[in-house]
Amino acid sequence: MNRNTDWKLVESQLASLLEGTDVWVSVLANASALLAEELEDLNWVGFYLTGRVVARGVGVDELVLGPFQGKIACERIAWGRGVCGSALERDETLRVDDVHEFAGHIACDSASRSEIVVPLHVGGHVVGVLDVDSPILARFDADDQTGLEACARIIEAHIGSDA
C-alpha cells in the first residue's frame, strides 16, 4: 500500500482552512472533514472533548463526542478507558497497531483495526483528543504521528482562546 501523505501540504491546507476561525465547533468540524478527505484507509476521524469544555451535565472525568467524519460513534468515554481515555489520562499520543490487542479497547466500530489518538491542549490543560481509526492493521506510522501532532498544534491555536 502506498500511503505517502504529504503532511506539509495537509498542515498548510489546515492552517489556511482555519485562518480567521475561532469557533470551536467550526474548527473541529472542518479539521475532521479535511483529514478524512486527505488521508487514505480511514473509517473514522474526529474529536472527543473533556467535561471541562462541554460542561453541561458532563463530568470532568469523561470525554464527550465532538465533530467527526465516519460511522456513528460512542457518545461518552471515561477517563483512562480505551485508547482515547488512555491518551487523555497519560497526556500523550497513543499509536495502536492492533486495537484488539489494546487492553480495554472500546469497539465503537468493529471494523476498526488500528488507531492513533493525539491529545489537544488549551491553556496548559488537556481539553480533548483527535481520534483517527482505520480498518487496516498498523495503518499509522511515525510520519503519521508527527503529521497529526502538527495538525493538533494548528487546531489548538484556533481553539485556544475560549477554554
Descriptive report:
The chain is α+β, with helices and mostly antiparallel strands. It has one domain (7-159): GAF domain (Beta-Lactamase). 33% of the residues lie in helices and 25% in strands. A hairpin with a 5-residue loop joins strand 2 and strand 3. It is globular, with a radius of gyration of 14 Å. The termini are far apart.
CATH-scheme architecture: 2-Layer Sandwich
CATH class group = Alpha Beta
Instruction: Label the overall shape.
Output: globular
Helix amount: 25-40%
Q: Please state the structural category.
A: alpha+beta
Poorly predicted ranges: none
Q: What is the typical, i.e. mean, pLDDT?
A: 89
Rg calc: 14 Å
CATH homology superfamily: GAF domain
Integer count of domains: 1
Strand order of the largest sheet: 3-2-1-6-5-4
- Residue fraction in strands: 25-35%
The arrangement of helices and strands along the chain is: HHEEEHEEEH
> How many beta-strand elements?
6
Separation of the first and last Cα atoms: 40 Å
And the CATH topology? Answer: Beta-Lactamase
Largest sheet: 6 strands, antiparallel
Draw up the topology in text.
Elements lengths: L6 H12 L5 H15 L5 E7 L11 E9 L5 E3 L3 H9 L3 E3 L17 E9 L2 E10 L7 H18 L4
Helix pairs in contact: 1-2, 1-4
What features would you highlight for this structure?
163 residues, Beta-Lactamase, 6-stranded antiparallel β-sheet, 4 helices, 33% helix, globular
